[in-house]
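Translate sequence into structure tokens.
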Amino acid sequence: MSGVLYIVATPIGNLGDISLRAIDTLKQVDLIAAEDTRHSTRLLNHLGISKKLISLHEHNEHSRVASMLEKLLAGMDIALISDAGTPLISDPGYTLVKAVTEAGIKVCPVPGASSIIAALSGSGLATDKFTYFGFLPQKNVERVARLNKMKDQRGTLILLESSHRIERLLEQLADVLPSNLIVVAKELTKLHEQFLRGKAVELIEKFKQDAALCKGEFVVLIDNPATSGEGSNEQDDIKLLELLLAELPLKKAVQLATRISGKKKNYLYRLALDINAVPDRGPA
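Result follows.
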């Protein structure tokens, strides 16, 4: 009988945030695959756990998959952990988990700390619709291009950023999304946890006034609700699209709706996709 791959969330700063189930799992497995074995050894020592560790990070994950599958098929239970938070979420593990599921081996998540959800819950921004984008590319041209694509996505937009790029991100947001409310969650669950709120230019000024703000790890949340030109007349847009979709293919219906309404093509395209995904609404 094959073993189980456990995806174990670990603390993102405060060691008290680890769950009892995570501790039990780490004690019981045969092997722990860690993003950084030195970092994880400190956590395990704190918990009084002595287990064999192997490294699994972005540079060796592909080469590790075959041996991990062999161990699991031999009946070993393995825990996958990252340096902080939930594995696979902007951390290694996707290639391994994909291979394990395709091999028919059980994968068992052991949920826990997540900087994304922690930041969202404390941000004061909408939680009913949010999109996570992870880290932006390093090159400025690629970063701005990604931000320009993001601004068409409605809801709360969530990014991760490092200490040496946070000010650059705020400057780019000031250009791309100058009027949006932004929340910067800094050092979550740690001693110097902070939530900073304001428009991009306001936050830039705060960072200039206090150099210490640049230190740490950041979750950046952007409030990007539907504009008044979109949200207030959405039902009218839906009715227009329904009429057009009854006679035309989706692409042509969206093109014509864009010309008629003057609304953004991406906005109308998403509405059209939503309409097509809903069963026949019947007579109004």
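Note: The longest helix spans residues 61-73.
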